[in-house]
Specification:
Layout: E1 2-3, H1 6-9, H2 13-19, E2 24-29, E3 32-44, E4 72-77, E5 81-87, E6 96-106, H3 108-114, H4 128-135, E7 151-155, E8 165-167, E9 183-185
Antiparallel strand pairs: 1-7, 2-3, 2-7, 3-6, 3-9, 4-5, 5-6, 8-9
The protein binds a DNA duplex (12 and 12 nucleotides) through strand 4, strand 5 and helix 4.
Length: about 220
DNA sequence: GGTGTGATCGTA
DNA sequence: ACGATCACACCA
């Protein structure tokens, strides 16, 4: 297996996001190797996206998003959770893709140890903060290189779904976030977080994947 | 299946 | 103050 090359990330976040579905996220540590298949993501398009941490310009927290593509942007939220993004953009426009869910592939014993609350294996990585907890991704991993660093993204031959599920993004209040269908997921996948697991673009009533609002 | 709520703290 | 969340309690 080869890591995804740098050029993979040097595209618009709305192109990279659905192309991340089916890829494997691997973290090798002394504790052991843990890996999962990405099945749910959300695009955050920095300069045009009020919901993006990068919308109001660079700060200490979001600095990584303003750097080169193919690095990991990790942030702390709700006073207790970590979330991980893939920096993906052209022309340094500070866009990123939030990794929201994965299917556990390797190191299940380590994941269960880190997530004792998870009753079923399908809940080990079925949410953005669950995923980082299971994979052991916290503060020190902010800014690591996904091509050469301790956390890498691979193409193991599993193609992204021909027709990904699509919906509005989760957990946002700000205006645009409720109208843009920038969440992508593998249809009928039990490890996808939340209730819209089975919904596809057609079922959502959308005619334009990127921009159309719906009731 | 669905909704409502407390936990907990860095960031702006 | 508030959040790109989680887990659990409760109702259906």
């Amino acid at each position: 297996m080869k890591p995804l090359p740098r050029v993979f990330y040097g595209r618009d976040a709305l192109v990279v996001a659905p192309d991340l579905l089916g890829r494997t996220l691997v973290h090798e540590t002394a504790e052991g190797t843990v890996a999962g298949r990405i099945v749910e993501v959300e695009a955050y398009c920095g300069p045009i996206d009020p919901a993006s941490h990068a919308y109001r310009g660079p700060t200490r927290r979001n600095a990584v998003m303003f750097g080169p593509a193919g690095h990991l942007y990790v942030y702390f939220t709700y006073g207790m959770h970590w979330c991980a993004n893939v920096v993906a953009h052209r022309d340094g426009d500070a866009s990123a893709v939030l990794l929201r869910a994965a299917v556990p592939l390797e190191g299940l014993d380590v994941m269960r140890r880190r997530r004792v609350r998870a009753r079923r294996d399908r809940d080990l990585c079925s949410g953005p903060a669950k995923l980082t907890q299971a994979l052991g991704i916290t503060r020190p991993y902010d800014g690591v290189d996904l091509v050469r660093g301790p956390v890498r993204l691979y193409d193991d031959g599993t193609p992204p779904p021909h027709t990904p599920g699509i919906s509005t993004r989760v957990g946002l209040r700000v205006g645009l976030g409720d109208e843009l269908l920038w969440r992508y997921f593998v249809p009928d996948e039990v490890c996808v977080s939340g209730p819209a697991r089975r919904r596809t673009i057609a079922e959502a009533g959308a005619t334009d994947a990127a921009t159309v609002a719906r009731s």
